[in-house]
Automatic annotation (TrEMBL):
InterPro entries: Kinase-like_dom_sf (IPR011009), Prot_kinase_dom (IPR000719), Ser/Thr_kinase_AS (IPR008271), Ser_Thr_dual-spec_kinase (IPR050494)
A GO cellular component entry from the record: nucleus
Domain Protein kinase residue range list: 68-411
Protein name, entry field: Protein kinase domain-containing protein
Gene3D superfamilies, A to Z: Phosphorylase Kinase, domain 1, Transferase(Phosphotransferase) domain 1
Record-stated family: Belongs to the protein kinase superfamily. CMGC Ser/Thr protein kinase family. MNB/DYRK subfamily.
Length: 414
């Protein structure tokens, strides 16, 4: 096919027609990864949203030692963008987080760098105390370096694979096997134990922030420490993604490491079920879903809330005793002047036990299972139920901590 031959080798065709023509790939227009890509701020380097305009082939940083050539976009969010890059000096691949050119994001991301350094040091100290080579440490996301490029903080991390949400999606939102859920959960508990030793709270544990190291392995790492805080320096009250937000944060009660354990419980349930356990459309709806499945917080806990009357009605039972009930959707809508939609029901069961036991997941959907295998699967499900009940404990003081949860039969298999 002459047309195919001429267009496939277009540059050579031009050279045949014009001896002075020389093709230089460096002069190709570079594909913009940032949207919108129209220059608006920072001498034309940023768009209207204060995002650095990233293009394939551009280099972040300076020189061979600290230069990173942009390959592709990995993700974007309120903080900025994450790109896959090749380090010029070593040709190694890394992910580079390019923070928005705004003071608030710069301050928060600078804190993320310090928290990662602290967590990594804690991991090294633990490995050394156990006489394990620190080079083998592999629980905490590896931080390579950070630098400023055109007024944007750039944070360089190791490059990982897909996140757990993408894994669930690839499996058709049908949920993962109990055994795979257990393997992933054990690793999460190890990482949370390490963070607790370092006196750090992640504050945003969710499937999108848990990445596989490789696509062919269940080994995982927690990422995005942008909302993390030190136990003695809790800067924010509006934390945790809504589906994984703990009751104490919803109520405005001072929080501890326990909020990460609540999020972990929600993540573990989602890994098994394939969809979020509490997919609330608002804070009110989130709290309603939690109480419908797990019961009410204690009166003592509700009294600690920043504003108990926002979500609850108070009833005097006499003798100084009070009872709280959650407000109806109509009452809450009228008082808060917010349009609360009807709560869509995603599950046919109202209790954790019924939900897990009756879920037609990976193993139950396998018609080739023997009676013995089915019985073993039911035993594993009961262990999962007990594990979730002790982690999804509404009272944070009664919630299992990572070290305790690590010894639970669901994890140990005993």
């Amino acid at each position: 096919n002459p047309l195919y031959a001429l267009t496939r080798r277009l540059a050579e065709t031009y050279e045949l027609r014009n001896a002075q023509f020389q093709y230089n790939p460096r002069r190709n227009p570079k594909r913009a990864l940032t949207r919108p890509s129209k220059p608006a701020k920072n001498d034309g380097y940023d768009n209207e949203n204060n995002d650095y305009i990233l293009r394939v082939g551009d280099v972040l940083g300076e020189g061979q030692e600290h230069g990173y050539r942009i390959i592709d976009l990995l993700g974007q969010g309120t903080f900025g963008q994450v790109v896959k890059c090749e380090k010029l000096k070593t040709k190694e691949l890394f992910s580079v987080k390019v923070i928005k050119n705004k003071a608030a994001y710069l301050a928060q991301s600078s804190m993320e760098v310090e928290i990662l350094k602290q967590a990594s040091k804690q991991e090294t100290d633990i490995y050394l105390s156990q006489r394990i080579n620190p080079d083998d440490q592999d629980s905490i996301l590896k931080f390579e370096e950070s630098f400023t490029h055109k007024n944007h903080l750039c944070i360089v991390f190791e490059l990982l694979s897909v996140n757990l949400y993408e894994l669930i999606k690839q499996n058709g939102f049908k949920g993962l096997s109990v055994d795979l859920v257990r393997v992933i959960t054990a690793q999460l508990l190890d990482t949370l134990t390490l963070l607790q030793h370092a006196k750090l709270i992640h504050c945003d544990l969710k499937p999108e922030n848990i990445l596989l190291k490789r696509v062919d392995s269940p080994a995982i790492k927690i990422i995005d420490f942008g909302s993390a805080c030190h136990d003695s320096n809790k800067m924010y009250t509006y934390i945790q993604s809504r589906f994984y937000r703990s009751p104490e944060v919803l109520l405005g009660i001072p929080y501890t490491y326990s909020i990460d354990m609540w999020s972990l419980g929600c993540v573990v349930a989602e890994l098994f079920l394939g969809i979020p356990l509490f997919p609330g459309s608002s804070e009110y709806n989130q709290l309603t879903r939690i109480t419908e499945m797990l019961g009410y917080p204690s009166a003592k806990m509700i009294r600690k809330a920043r504003n108990p009357s926002r979500f609850f009605n108070k009833h005097d039972r006499g003798n100084g005793c009070f009872e709280y009930t959650i407000k109806s959707r109509d009452q809450y809508t009228q008082e808060q002047r917010k349009n609360e939609m009807h709560s869509k029901q995603y599950f046919p069961h109202n209790t954790l036990e019924d939900l897990i036991l009756n879920f037609k997941g990976v193993s139950r959907a396998n018609p080739t299972m023997s009676d013995e295998q089915i019985q073993l699967d039911i035993i594993k499900r009961h262990a999962l139920i007990d594990f979730l009940k002790k982690i999804l404990e509404i009272d944070p003081e009664k919630r299992l901590m990572p070290q305790e949860a690590r010894m639970h039969p669901f994890i140990t298999g005993e």
